[in-house]
């Protein structure tokens, strides 16, 4: 097997390769002055199972194109199979038409992934499980929830003074799953309304009892506004310690600063997306998904 990486999250690719007991295969990514990329896999992948690690995190389009080119290079070089580990699947929130005249961007992405020789996709914590059905090639939908549950358990937080919280109704399935992993830890669900035109978020209320310690679980943090508003609501309802567990640290705009300045005690994210040093903040801790990818790959590539 060969593991190759684009430039989106080489740290994760190196960890995955290490877990598999191999080194990353070298890739040259040359960027022309106009921004175009020329990609070359620098060792033979002939008759090999190739694993490409490349989250479609910001810059989303650039990272997707690198992935398309890496897959094309692997295919043209005679790879036996090509699996794409796309820990964060960009455009996953644009999976249907919200308003007349819109594109279904995810559909375009899926069609392109399938046309460049990729045989299998591995992704983490998709926004909805229906996204799996968009693919006609095998897709493994993995989750960082077991990592978060293990971490919560190791802190002995399972008890009457702790509640899991979904910051919106769309996260009900997720919160039920992690609750089951934690011996049916109680959970609460916030009613969040987001204006589709302005992006303005309003927290309309909460169903379930808020206790001393609240553990917010979400799939991603982008602007950070969902988490900050949810934490405000939880504080107003009596929570004194608020921990956040979110798989994808997209951290756009001022997210790191507003999270650091918020009433949140600590923010745990996974490394599906590389968090650059400039976006790290004191309340942040990163937990790795690399062992889960390696395990999935070991039990059956394609
Ligand atoms: C929304 O449905 C998602 O689960 C996340 O809560 C949301 O995408 C987070 O976005 P932001 O950090 O911009 O509020």
Structural notes for this entry:
The model has no long low-confidence stretch (mean pLDDT 95). The longest helix has 17 residues, at 60-76. The chain has helices at residues 10-19, 60-76, 105-115, 145-154, 172-181, 225-236, 255-260, 290-298; strands at 2-5, 27-31, 37-41, 49-53, 81-85, 120-124, 139-142, 162-166, 187-194, 201-207, 213-221, 241-249, 266-270, 284-287. With 302 residues, the protein is an alpha/beta fold. Strands 10-9-8-11-12-13-14 form a seven-stranded mixed beta sheet, sandwiched between helices. Helix 6 links the parallel strand 11 (213-221) and strand 12. Ribose-5-phosphate (R5P) is lined by residues 167-168, 170-171, 218-226.
| Inertia-based shape | globular
Main sheet record: 7 strands, mixed
As a percent range, the share of helical residues equals: 25-40%
Mean pLDDT, as a whole number? 95
Molecules bound to protein: ribose-5-phosphate
Which features does this protein show?
8 helices; five-stranded parallel β-sheet; alpha/beta; 26% strand; 302 residues; binds ribose-5-phosphate; seven-stranded mixed β-sheet
Layout: helices, strands, pairs:
Layout: E1 2-5, H1 10-19, E2 27-31, E3 37-41, E4 49-53, H2 60-76, E5 81-85, H3 105-115, E6 120-124, E7 139-142, H4 145-154, E8 162-166, H5 172-181, E9 187-194, E10 201-207, E11 213-221, H6 225-236, E12 241-249, H7 255-260, E13 266-270, E14 284-287, H8 290-298
Parallel strand pairs: 1-4, 4-5, 5-6, 6-7, 8-9, 8-11, 11-12, 12-13, 13-14
Antiparallel strand pairs: 2-3, 9-10
Helix pairs in contact: 1-8, 4-5
The structure holds ribose-5-phosphate.
Ribose-5-phosphate binds at residues 167-168, 170-171, 218-226.
